[in-house]
Amino acid sequence: MSKVLYRKYRPTNFSEVVGQEHIVKTLQNAVKREKIAHAYLFSGPRGIGKTTIARILAKVVNCKNPKSGEPCNECENCLNINENKFLDLIEIDAATHTQVDKIRDLIEKINFSPTSGKYKVYIIDEVHMLSKGAFNALLKTLEEPPKHAIFILATTEIHKIPATIISRCQRFDFRRLKVSEIKERLEKIAKQEKVKVEKGVLDFIAINSNGGLRDSESLFGQILSLKDNDITLKEVQTILAVADISVAVKLIELITEKKYSEAIDYINKITDDGYDLEQFNIFLIEYCRKLMLIKISSEIKESFSSEMTEEQISELEAMSQKTSIAQLLGMIRAFIKSKEEIKSSIIQQLPLELAIAEINIADKESLTDKAATNYNDKIKEPIKKITDRVSSSVKQSQDFIKKSVGFEKEKGETNNAKNNGILEKSINLDKTALVALDTIRSEWCEILEEIKSHNHSLMAFLKTCQPVEVKKNEIIVSCQYSFHKDKLKKIENKAIIEKVAGEVLKTDVLMKFISQDEAEKMGYEIKETKSVTANDKKERDDVVDMALDMFGGKVV
Q1: I want to staple 300 with a disulfide (CB 3.0 to 4.6 A). Which of 104, 252, 293, 542 is the partner?
Q2: Could you write out the DSSP letters of every residue in 46-103?
Q3: How many domains does the chain have?
């Protein structure tokens, strides 16, 4: 029976180990300086070299002629270890020896001296599978082992190891291998096996091995079983029935282009072709995740070098320009949900079809939201016109405030007179002809109409007021309500009224507002104000309705 590739090409010394340079260098230095620890803990994903390095370490510490921290692979001990005949190397699979009795049996025999080597080396694989009692039994021995005993514990789930065990070991964390590292290793195997592989085949295998060298060698061995010396990418995809990342990219392209019908057809096609849909779904999630991360920061692409080729990273960047983060979030959530449902689904491709349907619905809802936003923009246009008009009035009022400074200073500063016509006129008010009270009263309605075009609310306040006397160019106006008087006396409002009144009366005037009570005490004749006409009422109602619409109020 021929050996599988990962056994046939298993490294026999540290220099042949792919990746894990940080661990190899540390162990080699320890061997050179003869500072071997009594217990090691190797943790990391499956198939990345934990047991291989453990066996090399066991070999080099028992080698009769070690060189620069490497075993000679020629002495009796090295050859026996390579052929699994070395009695002082004990390998235990904790997954099948979880009981405390097995560990107790090991501990009872540990005090016996090595048979032919310098050390007895115990490699306990998947050590996290041991029971609580077994860990407790092992604890004391790990703390004070015999000088001739070395423990090497290997695990894929470090979080399941008790802290008391971890603290008694030298811990080494193994990393996943890069695509380029796995590809380089497979190229050497292909050369030794004398087979030609099409461009992209080794990339395909390396990516699908998920960073594990053993998995990649197993996949490659499956392909070599074809007895074909010229292997194409299409053959590999057919044999392994594993979705290439390019297959996932194709579906994502269809989604970003909103070709949902074609996307569902595509899912059914890859199902008919025999692809592993669960693995395909994982590719979709991983690719969408990478798109999201690269959208957040283009610098993150450097972290993908261990999972993708340079060409694939370039395609990833181009694809990220066609999508939004919100769209990618929706896709990731939909595909995560479909992954959980694929195993239990009666129709295997149904969860993926549902995911496409959900993405389609989310996309339509997004378009609806945009349409609603556009509609809201349209209905805001009339309100904007109103607010613009108010803003215009406020600005106008501010201009009059600046111009009215001259009224306060009377004949004071005149340096800015050339830039302020109203100031010049206000300084010479005494020289201007008087205006009769009857003239002012007869023109009062026209004054109100003109003020209405400047400021609607001022006109409303003035409608309850009436001129009662003229002193030189100062018009005294009686206000029916104190509230109105206070509003009209504000400098910005007063400036507007004086300007408009001056234009109607064709002379410069000043306004003085007093309450009706004050006017009666001063002996002024107060005429009854006109009742509200139908037109006035309609105008008032229109204003009220507009205010209610704008601010969501109600009449009380």
Answers
A1: 293
A2: TTSSHHHHHHHHHHHHH-SS-BTTB--S-SHHHHHHHTT--TTEEEEETTT--SHHHH
A3: 4
**Which residue's entry shows tokens 């009035």?**
393
- 152 and 218 belong to one structural domain: no
Output the six-digit token pair for 426. 């206000």
Residue 17 domain boundaries: 5-173
Enumerate residues 6+ apart whose C-beta is below 8 A from 23. Answer: 42, 53, 172, 174
Considering only CA atoms, give the Rg of the chain: 46
The CA distance from 552 to 362, in Å, is: 32
Collapsing DSSP to helix, strand or coil, 531 comes out as coil
pLDDT tens digits along 496-526: 899 998 888 888 889 999 988 888 888 888 8
Examine residue 428 and state whether it is found in any structural domain, yes or no: no
What secondary structure, in 3-state letters, does 145-212 show? CCCCEEEEEEECCHHHCCHHHHCCCEEEECCCCCHHHHHHHHHHHHHHHCCEECCCHHHHHHHHCCCC
pLDDT (tens digit per residue) in 4-48: 888 888 999 999 999 899 999 999 999 999 899 999 999 999 999
CATH number of domain containing 500: 3.30.300.180
C-alpha span between 50 and 427 (Å, rounded): 99
Q: Phi and psi (nearest 5°) for 516?
A: -65, -35
Q: Fill in the DSSP letter of residue 515.
A: E
Q: Residue 217's CB: how many other CB atoms inside 10 A?
A: 24
CATH number for the domain spanning 187: value is: 1.10.8.60
Average pLDDT over residues 226-235: 75
Q: Tell me how far the alpha carbon of residue 307 is from its chain's centroid.
A: 21
Residues 6+ apart with CB under 8 A from 275: 241, 242, 243, 247
* Residue given tokens 């796995």 in the structure block: 182
Fill in the amino acid letter for 389: R
Residue 532 pLDDT class (50, 70, 90 cuts): very low
- How many CB atoms sit inside 10 A of residue 194's CB? 7
What spatial distance separates the first Cα and last Cα of the chain, rounded to whole Å?
98
Q: What's the whole-model pTM score?
A: 0.57
Assigned domain for 404 exists: no
Helix and strand numbers, DSSP H then E, in the chain: 25, 10
Residue 123: helix, strand or coil by DSSP? strand
Dihedral class, residue 63 (left if φ above 0, else alpha if ψ from -120 to 50, else beta):
beta
Residue with tokens 């007093």: 514
Reduced 3-state DSSP string for 234-273: HHHHHHHCCCCHHHHHHHHHHHHCCCHHHHHHHHHHHHHC
Could you tell me which of 329, 359, 309 has the C-alpha nearest to residue 182?
309
